[in-house]
Amino acid sequence: xxxxxxxxxxxxxxxxxxxxxxxxxxxxxxxxxxxxxxxxxxxxxxxxxxxxxxxxxxxxxxxxxxxxxxxxxxxxxxxxxxxxxxxxxxxxxxxxxxxxxxxxxxxxxxxxxxxxxxxxxxxxxxxxxxxxxxxxxxxxxxxxxxxxxxxxxxxxxxxxxxxxxxxxxxxxxxxxxxxxxxxxxxxxxxxxxxxxxxxxxxxxxxxxxxxxxxxxxxxxxxxx
Length: 224
Description:
Helix content is 60%, strand content 3%.
C-alpha cells in the first residue's frame, strides 16, 4: 500500500516513529485509573454508609445531581458500605494505572485490563473510568499490528487525514478535560446547558484521537 507523505516534520522516511498507539493506551489507561481513584476517594469521605441500592453518587451531600454538571459522579456498587467500596475502587484503579504503565507491551496480559474495568464498574469506580479502561484495552490489541484492522478498512486518503490529527485532537481532548476540572464552577451553567451531549461527544472525540494514533502508526510503517 502506498501512502503519501504527511506534512514536513510529522514523518521522516526511513526512521522509526514513536508508537502513537502505545502512548494513547498509556495515557487513556492512566486517566481511567486516576478518575476511578477519585471516585473512590469521595466515596470514602462519605463514611461507612449503607447505600439504599446499588446506584450511588460518589460525591455525597451537599452535592445535588440536578445542579452539578458532573451529576455528583454517579456510580454503582455491589458493596453495602461506601467506605469499603471506595477503598476497593482505589485499589482497582491503582491496578489499572500499573497495567497502563508496565504491561501494555505484554500481549498475554492485555485482557487483564478488561477484567479490571468490569471490577471497577461494580465497586464504585463510576461509569466513565471503566469505559476509558475498556477503550485502552481495545486499543492495546492494535499495538503489535500497527492498526492492521483499520488498515484493511480505510483508504489511503482517509488514513493520511486521520494521521495528521495525531496528536492534536488527543491533546485538545485532555486540555478540555483539564479546563472542566479546574474551572468546573465557572463552566457549570454551560455544561448543564449542553447536558446529554457532553458525554457522547467527549467519548467520540477520544475514540477519534485513538484512531488517529492507529493511522499515524500505519503511516510510519508504510512510508518509504
